[in-house]
Write a structure and sequence with these properties.
The chain is mainly alpha-helical. It has three domains: 31 residues, no CATH class; 115 residues, Orthogonal Bundle (Cytochrome Bc1 Complex, Chain D, domain 2), CATH 1.10.760.10; 105 residues, Cytochrome c-like domain (Cytochrome Bc1 Complex, Chain D, domain 2), CATH 1.10.760. It has a two-stranded antiparallel ribbon with strand order 1-2. The longest helix is centred in the first third of the chain and has 21 residues. It is elongated and about 145 Å long.
């Protein structure tokens, strides 16, 4: 059958879309800034998460641990490794503030322990410093120092002292050997050899015994032989000095004073809060000093107040 083509009206022709002569063109547009910021933020958070949780591809590190060092700190230890771990903890608590975690000391504050000839001395000579303190000139690695160090180790047990001295003698390149608990006990006895005997103590008055306790535990190294303080303690709120004990009776009852001596004060109020913490603090004596010694010491400290004085505290 032949194909028939019907004519199209002009109206229908006008409604048929006509091809355009203009081709398709691409236009440029900027990426919204929020997408860039969000992408960078996600990359940063991912990097932080990776750093904290990946263990840096160490196959021995597993959740919940995040590093080989953290994992090692929880592993059971014995022998030399245990002593070094214990010694490091004691060092960071009592010594690191002044001597630095790297053993390199701090200018004008404390000499270095790394490579120090004092660290290599015999155990009794080395132990004398933390047990009795140090006051006056000293030379370390050819450099002169004139300093005052409190007997920071006097309140420590023989086990803690032997551990911290071992850590010092075996860290930062030092290779001077470990210190056993028995060696520490012998050193403590040798250092306190001038302390009154039990027979001598029995003949003393409570105030005399209290004064002996004051000397035995090195209180004078910080508070002075006359208990008037004055030893520098940079950035301490107490005029940057170790405070005087002369008027301690106006600030405490005897029970309060004994409780304070037992617990100590690790965080000394700073004169400038934004500055470094004061290097000297009050050790805790609760596990070292006996009850009788504490009673005598409190009596001695209360006797220091000049008769008739009352500051109204």
């Amino acid at each position: 059958m032949p194909r028939v083509t019907l004519p199209m009206s002009d109206e229908l022709k006008s409604n048929i879309p006509q091809p355009s002569d203009a081709g398709l063109t691409a236009s440029r547009s900027t990426v919204p800034i929020w997408i860039i910021v969000l992408t960078l933020l996600l990359l940063f958070l991912g990097a932080v998460y990776f750093d904290h949780h990946s263990g840096w591809f160490d196959k021995h590190v597993y959740a919940p641990y995040t590093s080989a060092e953290q994992l090692a700190s929880y592993q059971p230890k014995s022998g030399a490794a245990s002593m070094l771990t214990q010694g490091k903890a004691v060092y960071e608590t009592y010594c690191g503030l002044c001597h630095g975690s790297d053993g390199l000391g701090k200018p004008g504050q404390a000499p270095e322990l790394a490579g120090s000839e004092w660290v290599a001395k015999d155990i009794t000579s080395l132990a004398r410093i933390p047990l009795a303190g140090l006051n006056g000139p000293i030379q370390v690695k050819g450099r002169d120092w004139n300093l005052s160090m409190a007997p920071m180790g006097a309140s420590l047990s023989d086990a803690d002292l032997s551990a911290v001295l071992t850590y010092i003698r075996e860290s930062w390149g030092n290779k001077n050997g470990a210190v056993s608990v028995d060696e520490m006990k012998s050193a403590r006895v040798a250092i306190s050899g001038n302390a009154p005997s039990a027979a001598d103590l029995a003949k003393m008055t409570p105030l005399e015994r209290g004064h002996a306790v004051f000397q035995k535990y090195g209180c004078a190294q910080c508070h002075g032989l006359d208990a008037k303080g004055g030893v520098p303690n940079p950035n301490a709120k107490t005029a940057e000095q170790i405070p005087s004990l002369i008027y301690v009776a106006d600030g405490y009852t005897k029970d309060e004073l004994k409780a304070f001596i037992r617990r100590g004060e690790r965080n000394i109020p700073a004169l400038h809060p934004d500055g470094p913490p004061p290097p000297h603090f009050m050790p805790s004596w609760g596990n070292v000093i006996s009850s009788n010694e504490l009673d005598d010491l409190a009596d001695f400290l209360f006797s220091l107040k000049p008769k008739g004085d009352n500051l109204g505290f």
